[in-house]
From TrEMBL:
It holds the Pfam family Cytochrome_CBB3. SUPFAM superfamilies: Cytochrome c. Keywords: Heme, Iron, Metal-binding. Residues 34-115 form the Cytochrome c domain. This is Cytochrome C. It comes from Campylobacter novaezeelandiae. GO terms for molecular function: electron transfer activity; heme binding; metal ion binding. It comes from the Bacteria.
């Protein structure tokens, strides 16, 4: 059954030009307007700064510093807190469940800068460049 679902997703990706990465990872659109000011307001209103610091620089318990996490990791973590009912993440789950996807995106814009989506896209494009040619004019995988 899982193979069938994966096959359908791959076929759909090929047919409609959908990036499979966007199915398995959280992606951020450069067409969407992210609001760092609103993200800052939400960050302090929801009291994220108490545990994570004003700029995501503090470590609370066993967590990573928010400033060291990628936007994808931050979004995935917050969404995971809303979906999982683990005893060790109960406190964070209470806060995360109050956030919409737009709230999360705006908080990320506050922590990473309003143009973070462009930086991610630029990084992704640079990673997809082919390897340099050898002196014989061929590529090495």
């Amino acid at each position: 059954m899982l193979r069938l679902i994966l096959l359908v997703l791959v076929f759909k990706g090929l047919l409609f030009g959908i990036s499979l990465k966007s199915i398995f990872d959280y992606t951020f659109s450069t067409n969407k307007e992210y609001n760092p000011e609103k993200g800052e307001e939400i960050y302090f209103q929801k009291k994220c700064n108490i545990c994570h610091g004003n700029q995501g620089e503090k470590i609370f318990s066993n967590s990573k510093k928010l400033k060291d996490m990628t936007p994808e990791q931050i979004k995935a973590s917050l969404i995971a807190y809303t979906l999982e009912s683990s005893k060790k993440s109960t406190q964070m789950a209470l806060y995360a469940k109050e956030l919409s996807h737009d709230d999360i995106d705006n908080i990320i814009a506050y922590l990473k800068g309003g143009d973070f989506a462009f930086k991610l896209q630029e990084k992704e494009l640079l990673e997809e460049e082919p390897a340099k040619k050898t002196k014989h004019g061929t590529f090495i995988k």
